[in-house]
Every structure is written in C-alpha cells, then in structure tokens.
Specification:
The complex is a heterodimer of chains A (193) and B (329). By secondary structure, chain A is an alpha/beta fold. Chain A contains seven helices and six strands; from the N terminus they run βαβββααβαβααα. In chain A, strand 5, helix 4 and strand 6 form a beta-alpha-beta unit. The two termini of chain A are 22 Å apart. Chain B contains twelve helices and 14 strands. The termini of chain B are far apart. Chain B is an alpha/beta fold. Chain B has two domains: 184 residues, Rossmann fold, CATH 3.40.50; 126 residues, Rossmann fold, CATH 3.40.50.920. Classes of the chains: A alpha/beta (193), B alpha/beta (329). At the A-B interface, strand 4 of A face helix 3 and helix 11 of B. Bound molecules: thiamine diphosphate.
C-alpha cells in the first residue's frame, strides 16, 4: 500500500510447509500479488520426520506452484548456485511484484537439538551428505580455479576461528542480566516508540 | 513387591496397556514413532505396534487433532500427542470449537471420546515460546476434562480412565516430571479416579493447593514449613476441570488459610479461579485472605537465573505461606 520497492524474504523448513500457516500465506501472497521470496530450506527431516512421511507430494515446488507462483529449485549445498538463484528470484519478485518460491535442497549434519538421539536416519546417509558440505566443496572449487591458495584459506579459517573465539570470550566475560530486569521488554516504555 | 519406575516409563506402560487392551486405540502425533517421542515416552512402541497404530504426523496440529476428533467420532480410540501445549495453540479451534462443543451442539447425539496428551511447563531453559503453562486456559472450557498427573502413579493410571471417558480429555504432562522416579506396586495398579483432588501431605495450618510440575516444589516447601512449626496440607488438584471443590474446601475449612501455587501467570489464571472459589465457599472460615504464588508476568526467560526468578520456587512458596501468619507464625 505504501508502494515501497521492498521485498520480504521468508525462511522456513520443509517440515513447517505442512502447517496450514504456510498454505494460507502462500495463497494470500499470490492472490494479492505480494513481493515475497519464500525460502524453503529442505533438509529432508523435520526433527525425526522424513519428508516422505510428512508430504503427500514430496516435490515442494509442485506444491507451491499450485498457488500460482513461480518456483525455483536449487542445490543448497552449492554456494555459487544459491547466490545466483537467490539473486535471480529476488529480481523476479521485484520486477513482477509477485511471490516466488525457492527450494534450497540441503541437509542437517547434526541432531535436531541437544535432546535428539538421532535414531531415525542412517549414519551412512549423514556421512554421504557431509562430503557435500558447502564449506569444503566451495573451498575446493576456489582452489581448483586458482582463486584461493592454501595459505589464504588457512588465514581465512584462522580469522573466522578468532572471531568466534573473541565472541565467546566476550560473552564469557559479560555480566549476568540483573534479576531486577526480569520484567523488562514485556511492553514498550511510554514515549519510546 | 514394588518396582522403581519413572513418570516417563509409567506413561509408556499405560500407553502399551491401552494399545494391547483395545485394537481401536492408536497413538498419533509429531515424532511419536521413528524419533521415539519428543520426551521419549513412546520409545519402542512403533516396533511393538507398527506404523498404523503409532502414527507419525506432519507438522499439522490443526489437521491431525481434527483427524483425531474424526477418528473418535468414527468409533476409534485416538490418543493424540501434541508435542507441547505451546504448539496446541494451532489446534485450539478443533479442541475448543469442535471437541468440546460437539456434544452440546448436536443435542447430545455426538460425544467425542478423544484423549489429547501434551507436555506443559517451564524450567528447562527452552525459552519463552516453549515454556508456557496453558492448561488453565483449557480448564476454562466446558466440555473438556483436564488432567494434570503430578505423580508417577497418576502418570500410570490416568490414561486408561481418560480413554474410558466418553468426552474429550486433555492430559498435561509437566516436562520437568518425566524423570521423576518412585516405587510403584507391580500389581494391582492402585485404583484411581479422574474426578478428585488428593491430599499429598496432611496438615492442619495452611492448605497448599497446586498441580502438575509445582507439586514437588510445594511438597519441599511443606517440609521446610514443618521445620518452622507450620503444618502445611498439600493438595494436588489432579483434575483441573471439573474442579473438586469438596476436597479443596474441606482442607481450607480445616486449615483456615490457603495458598495456591500455579506456574501460569496470575492474571486470569487457574489460581485466580481457585481463590475466587475459596472466597465464595469458605470466606467465613478463613483467618487470612487467600494467597498465591504464580509465575512473574513475563514471557519465561531463557537464561537460567532469570527463568528461575520468573517461576514459583520453594523459598517464594515458604515466604508466601509464612506471610499468611503475619511475620512470625
Ligand atoms: C507449531 C510447532 N509445532 C512443532 C514444533 C516443534 N518443532 C520445532 S522444530 C521442528 C521441526 C521443524 O522442521 P523443519 O520445518 O523442516 O525445519 P528444520 O528444523 O529442519 O530446519 C518441530 C517439529 C514447533 N516449534 N512448533
């Protein structure tokens, strides 16, 4: 209504796609021609529930297409492909003012949470997907192209590690939030909004 | 002879027994099968009973609770597990507008014998959206029976009674209780009901009224109060709807003081309802205004010390009970 050129990117898992909320939203976005980029991270499992046990139609793009929106499927483990696909899809949303559904095919290497015993899938399956880990494959590609030397890679890796270590150290050195602040941020203070 | 058994195992035994006893009974919900249940309650049942009867559902709370209602109407014995009460908000419409009301709206033609189980409560550092205690909301709704097993015995015994009930029954399992362990007799399982409150610790000076995950805290508080010369009578509500006024009022009239402990927020809470009933029915027997300990009115925080500060805790319960006697009892 404000005629802004903005786009809304909306992220969710393939498990969440079975919720009515997705279908209501997809219908509205297509019906009202809203500039929404739906980014579905399809990692094949919703906690312990495999895609085929949660979707009648496991081709998520077919599902989304039924709302009359464009769909794009991309190998979510390929950094360059994801970059291009997102750029293209975002351009399409901006150009048409209509929603686009993007399926990013990926995988979760670890358990769903610290409570998850991870009993519902083969260890071999996990290992096979790990060989496609985007950090390794992208690094290998850059090296093969001659865009990245081993020294540069090690320096990047060390810099990233140092950044994480610094963040952890910062957090560890911080003070606990005072209990006196328990009721903070339940409501917006008068006059601050 | 007795045996040691956890709350979780007791729930599983009850499920197994129900599945064995009646071929119409089945369990469905998110991750009840291959994953083994979010809280490992249904672990092993898929192998034992197969995927027809231990049925993994998509993330579709509105849909599968509705399907459970349909199954109940069609003569099956559905036990629907909604992972936690937090996610049951997506299924409020079928629970409240369909399951609870159908009998009334059909002029008594259709009862809905569904059992819906869900975890409730806070205390595990899983942050606001996973820490709600909404069982009191459900206790607001005519047509529902709302159970809150707080002991291993009730975890073991309530399910069969819920299945035998012709109307919708909601069972709230506090997430902090799953590892609770006690001695249970092998056989027979103690006779229970799903209509009464129970005195978990007799006393004479103050009625300490609670349910679910707060029971262990209140028992602990009663222990500490005893050391201070105050005899607390601990009432476990067990059934949040319909409330067992008789047991409550008998205790309150005897003790003449009442403290309600409820993990939900105080405004518009079950605690508020309990205090209203005490005031309506036992006002002239009271030596002090009824009091309550509830959660602070904030989304339950993630940080451990903040979460602890937000929830009812033993020292708060002890202090609130002592305050009913003035500063020195
Ligand atoms: C309404 C609701 N139901 C259930 C859950 C519990 N839950 C949390 S994450 C999850 C799996 C989600 O799977 P998916 O959408 O595929 O996302 P992923 O975790 O794989 O990224 C479930 C069932 C929840 N948080 N909310």
């Amino acid at each position: 209504m404000r005629q802004r050129q903005a786009l809304t990117a909306c992220f969710f898992g393939e498990g969440a796609m079975a919720e009515g909320a997705f279908h209501e939203a997809a219908n509205l976005a297509a019906l009202w021609q809203l500039p929404v980029l739906y980014c579905c991270e399809n990692n094949l499992y919703a906690m312990g529930t495999a895609l085929a046990r949660s979707e009648s139609q496991t081709d998520l793009c077919v599902k989304a297409a039924s709302y009359d929106m464009a769909t794009v499927r991309v190998d979510g483990m390929d950094v360059v492909a994801v970059h291009e696909a997102v750029q293209g899809a975002a351009q399409q949303v901006r150009a048409t003012g209509r929603p686009v559904f993007l399926e990013l095919q990926t995988y979760r290497f670890r358990a769903h949470s610290m409570f998850d015993p991870d009993l519902y899938r083969d260890k071999a399956e996990v290992e096979a997907w790990k060989t496609r880990g985007p950090i390794h494959t992208f690094t290998a590609r850059l090296k093969a192209q001659g865009s990245l030397t081993e020294e540069e890679f090690l320096a990047l890796d060390a810099a990233a590690q140092a950044e994480v270590d610094a963040a952890v150290a910062f957090a560890e050195a911080g003070n606990w939030e005072p209990v006196a602040d328990l009721l903070r941020d339940v409501y917006t203070p008068q006059g601050s909004a | 002879m007795g045996r040691r058994i956890t709350y979780r195992e007791a729930l599983r035994e009850a499920l197994r027994e129900a599945l064995q006893a009646d071929p119409r009974v089945f369990l469905m919900g998110e991750d009840v099968g291959r994953y083994g249940g979010t809280y490992a309650v249904s672990k092993g049942l898929l192998d034992e009973f197969g995927p027809e009867r231990i049925r993994d559902t998509p993330l579709s709370e509105l849909g599968f609770v509705g399907a459970g209602i349909g199954a109940a109407l069609g003569g099956m014995g559905p036990i629907v597990e909604v992972m936690t009460v937090n996610f049951s908000l997506l299924a409020l419409d079928p629970i409240v507008n369909t399951a609870a009301m159908l009998r009334h709206m059909s002029g008594g033609q259709f009862s809905v014998p569904i059992v819906i189980r869900m975890a409730t409560g806070a205390g595990r550092q899983v942050a606001a959206q996973h820490s709600n205690s909404f069982e009191g909301w459900y206790a607001h709704v005519p047509g529902l029976r709302v159970l809150a097993p707080a002991t291993v015995e009730d975890a073991r015994g309530m399910l069969a009674l819920a299945l035998a009930d012709p109307d919708p029954v909601l069972i709230f399992e506090h997430a902090q209780l799953y590892n609770l362990e006690t001695e249970l007799p092998d056989d027979p399982i103690p006779a229970l009901d799903i209509c009464s409150a129970r005195v978990r610790r007799p006393g004479t000076d103050v009625s300490l009224i609670t349910h679910g995950g707060s029971l262990p805290k209140v028992l602990q508080a009663a222990q500490e109060l005893a050391g201070l010369g105050i005899s607390g009578e601990v009432i476990d509500l067990r059934v949040l709807r319909p409330l067992d006024d008789a047991t409550l009022m008998a205790s309150v009239r005897k003790c003449r003081r009442a403290l309600v402990v409820d993990e939900s927020w105080r405004s518009g809470s079950l605690a508020a309802e309990l205090m209203a009933r005490i005031t309506e029915q036992a006002f002239f027997d009271l030596d002090a205004p009824p009091a309550r300990v509830c959660s602070e009115e904030v989304p339950i925080p993630y940080a451990r010390h903040m979460e602890e500060a937000a929830l009812p805790q033993v020292p708060k319960i002890v202090a609130a009970a002592r305050a009913l006697f003035g500063s020195t009892p």
